[in-house]
Amino acid sequence: MRSGDAIAGTGWEPRGVNANTKHPDPPATTSGRPLRVLLTTDWWEPVVNGVVASVQTLRRELLALGCDVRVLTLSQGLRTRNEEGVYRLGSVSASMVYDRARIGMPSGRRVLREILRWSPDVVHSQAEFSTYVWARRIARTLSVPLVHTYHTIYEDYTHYYSPSRTMGRKVVESFSRRVLSRTDAVIVPTAKVARLLTGYRVDRPLHVIPTGLDLERFRPARTAGEHADARALRAGLGIRPEQRVLLSVSRLAKEKNLDEVLEMMALADREDTVLVLVGEGPYRGALEARAAALGITDRVCFTGVVAPADIPRWYRMGDVFVGASLSETQGLTFIEAMSSGLPLLCRRDPSLASVVVEGVTGWQFESPAQFTTRLNALLDDPRGREQMSRAALDRARITCDAQEFGRSVLSVYQQARGRREPLIVRHEPVPA
Fold first, then answer.
1. DSSP state of 429
2. pLDDT tens for residues 385-426?
């Protein structure tokens, strides 16, 4: 869904950016200096996930549009530091709640002073916890808009924090409504998330803006060297040349529903296929045990941790991208796979409606029988699979343009600034 598209059949339409919205002029303030944007996020390198990918893409595109952009995030340790426009606040591990999560320390006064002196024109928060507190304080102190991107459907993560799914949902609804009520605008990646927030009674302007993708980085193998590299990756995992690779790129966590992918693999019973799970996570041991119980250990490969820069290489070695997650807000890995020329085979989910065009870029399944039928159709028809591969590339170019992503977000900033009356900057006292 492009920014501004209405949700068919619901009467819901995002407010703010619409199909007739003109793209913003090169960003500048009344003083003529570049627009200053502070992005705040609890997740940043070296962590690899959809939030990090989205924020990095946005930062790059805003810089290309002429903005002055800085990032406020959490350090991987207690030390607070500043490196090339990225402020890292000291933090402690919260991995007992969620793998690799961290909680910011109530320090960093020097960082706060530096940011207030820099004086951003817009604060754009990308997380609802530690750095959101900072984002809200900075925006309130400087009387500038606070824009927020809602990345995560927390209802799908209730198993981490609540024994009751019903109670967990009520907590999420109340928490989300309270956090978002303090913002000037909310960006969501898909209509699915917009509907969810509308159901939570969030009354802030909502903008549906899919995250863009670097289509030069995520693309099929072009050179002899890239084809050789793909073959080498396969050989390194013991995959024979005649075998087909079903690929999944994901954090190995319970909410990704990879158990179901393993079960589908076993039921499909195709000896000529190998499932490659790219990624690491706390659920790996359970998945390895499940593969053993299903008798498919010889046809399931776990790569472990993969450096972010190497992920495109792994997409290029696959034949079909598979997934069964129902916790996606946009499904960035599905889009990356599509941009790499892989047909998609995934569990039906509204968040993938604009990605998976049935019979064109891939298939969505709802039962083991459908999975097997669609998999057989993909693997037994090389010409049809090649057609889907080309269609996937075309679809990616249409729906996932990174430049369009940056321009649409910039338009939200300018609208949010336009809705605010000129205010006198009020700096709260900052302890020495």
1. P
2. 999 999 998 888 877 788 999 999 999 999 999 988 554 444
Residue 144 in contact with residue 114, Cβ under 8 Å?
Answer: no
Beta strands in 8-151 (DSSP E): 36-40, 68-74, 81-83, 86-89, 91-93, 102-104, 122-125, 146-149
The per-residue pLDDT for range 351-380, each reduced to its tens digit, is 787 788 899 999 999 999 999 999 999 999
Specify whether the CB–CB gap between 292 and 266 falls below 8 A.
Answer: no
Please state whether beta strands 122-125 and 36-40 pair in parallel, antiparallel, or not at all (unpaired).
parallel
Are residues 349 and 244 part of one domain?
yes
- CA–CA separation, 379 and 335 (whole Å): 21
- Kindly report the CA angle at 139 between 135 and 141, in degrees rounded to 5? 115
How would you label 41-77 residue by residue, b for 16+ Cβ within 10 Å and e otherwise?
bbbbeebbbbbbbbbbbbbebbeebebbbbbbbbbee
Beta strands in 41-190 (DSSP E): 68-74, 81-83, 86-89, 91-93, 102-104, 122-125, 146-149, 185-188
Domain residue limits at 73:
36-212+401-419
Residue 90 has what DSSP assignment? Answer: -
Task: Collapse the DSSP code of 221 into the 3-class scheme (helix H, G, I; strand E, B; otherwise coil) and give the result.
Answer: coil
Answer yes or no: is 159 within a domain: yes
Q: Please tell me the distance from the alpha carbon of residue 56 to that of residue 37, in angstroms, as a whole number.
A: 13
